Amino acid sequence: MNAKDLRDKTVDELRDELANLKKESFNLRFQQATGQLENTAGIKAARRNAARVKTILNEKAAAAAE
After folding, report:
1. Whole-model pTM?
2. Which domains does the chain have, with CATH numbers?
3. How much of the chain is in helix, strand and coil states, percent to nearest 5?
4. Which of 8, 21, 37, 45 gives 32 a disulfide partner, CB atoms 3.0 to 4.6 angstroms apart?
5. What crossing angle do the helices spanning 41-65 and 11-34 adopt, rounded to 10°?
6. What does the alpha-carbon distance between residue 51 and residue 31 come to, in Å, rounded to a whole number?
7. pLDDT of the chain along its 66 residues, tens only?
8. Distance, CA of 64 to CA of 32 (rounded, Å)
9. Residue 9: CA atoms inside 13 Å, Cβ hemisphere, count?
10. Which residues contact 50 (CB under 8 A, 6 or more apart)?
11. Contact 26, 65 (CB under 8 A)
12. Which example biological process does GO assign this protein?
């Protein structure tokens, strides 16, 4: 997922995406704790994707406030 695709989404879609990423991040951390996680890079990717979504949400909020 890249920032260009995220900017095309609505605020509600971004919030849904953020909720999904948080769930995914939780599941990945849980798998790591139980020793079932094979691809540890997924944790970093999920965290960065969540940060991208939050950044776009903040940009949209700032644009709406102006």
Report:
1. 0.90
2. 3-65 (1.10.287.310)
3. 80, 0, 20
4. 37
5. 160
6. 21
7. 789 999 999 999 999 999 999 999 999 999 999 999 999 999 999 999 999 999 999 999 999 998
8. 40
9. 19
10. 18, 21, 22, 25
11. no
12. translation
Residue 8 tokens, joined: 């095309």
Q: Which residue in 57, 13, 48, 10 sits closest to 28, CA to CA?
A: 48
Length of the chain: 66
d(CA 50, CA 35) in angstroms, rounded, equals 24
Terminal C-alpha separation, the chain: 28
Q: Residue 24 corresponds to which tokens in the numbers above?
A: 């995914």
Pair of tokens at residue 32: 């790591």
The residue written with tokens 């709406």 in the block is: 64
Q: Amino acid identity, residue 12?
A: D
